[in-house]
Amino acid sequence: MSSNKPIPGMGSANFGNAFDLSTLKKPTGDVVAPTHGKAVTQENLVPDFVAKSKESVVILLAWSARSAQAKEILETLGKLEIADKNSWLLGVVDIDTQPQVAQALQIKSVPVAIAIIGEQLLPLFESVPPADQVRLVINKLLELAAGKGIGKAPDGPTEIPMEAEEAAAYAAMEKGDYKAAKASYEAWLKRKPNEQVAVVGLAQVNLMLRIDGLDPVLTLKNAKTDDLTSQMMCADIEIATGNYEAAFDRLLTAVRGMTGDDRDKAKVHLITLFNLVDPTDPRVIKARGQLASALF
Prior knowledge:
The protein has helices at residues 45-50, 68-83, 99-104, 131-147, 164-174, 178-191, 196-211, 216-221, 228-240, 244-257, 260-274, 282-295; strands spanning 2-3, 19-20, 38-39, 58-63, 89-94, 109-110, 112-117, 120-126. It is α/β, with parallel strands linked by helices. It has two domains: 2-147, 3-Layer(aba) Sandwich (Glutaredoxin), CATH 3.40.30.10; 164-295, no CATH class. A six-stranded mixed beta sheet has the order 1-8-7-4-5-3. A two-stranded antiparallel ribbon has the order 2-6. It starts with a strand and ends with a helix.
């Protein structure tokens, strides 16, 4: 087997959040079987995965039941394999029971995903990328493989099936029932505390609840610079209307000019608004830097 470069958008640029194997405690009970994919062993690695990579894309995930991150990415990959009607093969390397396989693949942390196309290894990612990014990477893999005469390129984008709580939240929002949507997102976060889609969804619903009934024009017109509640309402309206910079500047001014509880509330509210904007947006990056300077 030979190595290759990472797929564009993934690879070593995303390394750094993986769960170092040396930090994992030894299993204390029965090994937990993965919920998706086919288990990889020393015996079946070559015949069932490497050899199969000449016919279809193979993705191997280094996994451990002791890693919450590994469970999360396994769930995403499993859903995508089903959504793609098993047009590619997901193999799961349990590093607790198959340390020799992990060693052969030079895996030193979990979760780690590796693709095999035509017996060539391509490193994909460590840590837990957003589901939509994983979707794009798999599409690129399928297109790359099709160009080599392996499998076929995807017909079009395939959506990841929604979580039950996510579907319930969307249904509630379509009816304008933001309280029910909030309850659904909170239930989702209770089950999966690090689910970023739910974090953003809850922030959006809370924003809608806060601005519900407000008159945008009058609220902004009657804003009081020395009244934090007034400033937070104005910032909410500005975020909702896409005026991000104005909202951030308003709360940064409050953080700089206020003291005690009001200063803390302004800071928390500003951070909450950050969750509503793409973290790579220059306005967010600038405001985060200004907040750090204001605080320290």
